[in-house]
Each structure stands twice: as C-alpha cells, then as structure tokens.
Specification:
By secondary structure, the chain is mainly β. The protein contains two helices and nine strands. The strands form two sheets. It has a six-stranded mixed β-sheet with strand order 4-5-2-3-9-8. GO terms for molecular function: 2 iron, 2 sulfur cluster binding.
Length: 114
C-alpha cells in the first residue's frame, strides 16, 4: 500500500531523533511503525496514544522524517495540526503533544478535550 505524503501531524526534529534512537536501541521489528492516536479516558476526556505497532486495516500510513507513522483514519479529526515534541530537561522528560484542537488539557499534558 502506498504511503501518503501529507500527514495531519508534525514532529519536531528532537522528537524524530528520539524516536529513531528508540527504534535503533530497542530493536523494533521490521513492519512496525510509530502508532499515533487517541483513546477515551484520561482526566480531560481523551488521551494520546504513542507506541510501536503493526499497521491495521483502518490505518493511514505516513512518512515523517523517515519514520513510518500509522494512524487510524478516525483519529485524524482529533489530531489534525498536532505537533509531537520531545523534552529532556530537569523539569520534564518525554513526548508532548501540541494540539490546536484541544479545548482543555490536563496538568500532566497526556489528555485533552475537544
């Protein structure tokens, strides 16, 4: 199946670098890509999904800086325009989501309402 060129999400250089590092050091199997999505739950109503997985039937596939990204077609509405970033500082470490569609976010930044 063809990889789509226009992704509804973006990734900072720092996040892309960290994801490539994880793929190398954790030996993610061939055929797996980065799954980005949302699920019900969290203190604001929805939480983000970020992990490695195989492509599923309802997925769209994108190439972001050489990283295969899989996203369920239904999640695009919630994630359109979102930028994934990575912070590695004393006050915070991990991936963050800057989502312009979120009307509310929680203090931990891992859930939102739209």
């Amino acid at each position: 199946m063809a990889t789509q060129t226009q992704s509804p999400i973006a990734m900072s250089d720092t996040a892309a670098s960290e994801i490539r590092k994880i793929m190398r050091t954790k030996k993610i199997p061939d055929g797996y890509g980065l799954r980005v999505g949302v699920k019900g739950g969290g203190c604001s109503g929805m939480s983000y999904v970020l992990g490695f997985d195989k492509k599923r039937d309802k997925d769209q596939e994108f190439d972001i800086d050489g990283i295969p990204v899989f996203m369920d077609k239904r999640h695009g509405l919630y994630l359109m325009g979102t930028t994934i970033d990575y912070h590695d500082g004393l006050d915070a470490r991990g991936f963050t989501f800057d989502n312009p569609n979120a009307t509310e976010t929680c203090g931990c930044g891992s859930s939102f309402a739209s």
